[in-house]
Write the structure tokens for this entry.
Amino acid sequence: MMPMQNKYDYLIIGAGIMGLSVARSLRSQYPKASILILDKEDDCAYHASGRNSGVLHAGFYYTADSLKAKFTVDGNRTMKEYCRQKNIPINECGKLVVAQNKAELTQLFELEKRGKRNGSNIRIISEAQASELEPNIKTYQKALYSPDTASIDPKQVCHSIKGDLKNLDVHFLFKTQYLRHTNNTIHTTQGDFTGTKVISCGGLYADKIAQDFGFGHKYTMMPFKGLYLKYTKNKTDIKMNIYPVPNLKNPFLGVHYTKTVGGDIKIGPTAIPAFWRENYQGLNNFKISEFISTAGFESKLFLTNSFQFRELAFEEMRKYNKNYFISLAAAMVKSIDTKGFSEWTKPGIRAQLLDKTNLSLVQDFVVEADKDSIHILNAVSPAFTCAFPFSDYIVQTYIAA
């Protein structure tokens, strides 16, 4: 849809789940405001928003003082409400987090403690109780049960929100790449557009856009490639989401079983360090400047071994070995046909912010703003789950206040 004007109250850069949800919150708060969403791709949800697992998380991984903890429980509820209202399918199969030894059992109780503090509906159950829910489960003495974890189709949700916004007179302009700005005029490949307020939801390029506006200079985006393997033998060998106990020092949750909204079984994701921002496959979207920058930071992380990056990199690279990848998932169940994993799904890239000052991965959402622009810098998982309340928070905190 071509915009009918080049001046708007709100200019949103990026048509992923955050750009769409921010527009939804703005329209709810300001029914008569003019809003334009720009995106460099052909349609919405082209990158992380359309390539993620589709899992609606339940809010028990995150420390109590984090924005993730603040929004995940409410986000889970409101996203489900939206899907029911729009007749979008939800697979409410729940999730089990399993332990493999005594040390991981201790971590299970830490997750339960975090979850209860965050208002998450979770509980520790016995191995026998876990087996009643998922007969194929293999765990050490206990498991953590999350009945509210569910799966949806993220692309279907995004396209539904896009349709809602169009009906509410929100304008979209695709194939429109941000180039630079002069004050609050955005220069793009489709011309210039001015906004009273510019809101960047730029995903993999959020840091670049923010830095162009004078924000986020201590950060850079580190891309991590996520791969999933689909189990094509049947849909019945696994009934629910099964996750390992994660390493809470980094933001990745480890290889796990996902039950998709259609009932399919897949394992993943990897968190393989990528070498440029859209490093999905082969040399597609290769940019030499991104390669040099990303490889430079990855070299620093490897040499300093910050947040145990060296071990993470070696471990993740091993997951290119299909047999090893499958073995990690097989350890969480009693029986699975390893030959049944035969189809790689569409790869995704996690837009993970790195703090350059201390070479650490940023665990929480990051927003920086002034009176003219707002920059959502680190909308990583569970941003899809959190999208509605997180967007309301952005509007209330940085616009309505």
Notes: The longest strand covers residues 191-200. The radius of gyration is 21 Å. The chain has a mean pLDDT of 95. Residues 67-85 form the longest helix (19 residues).
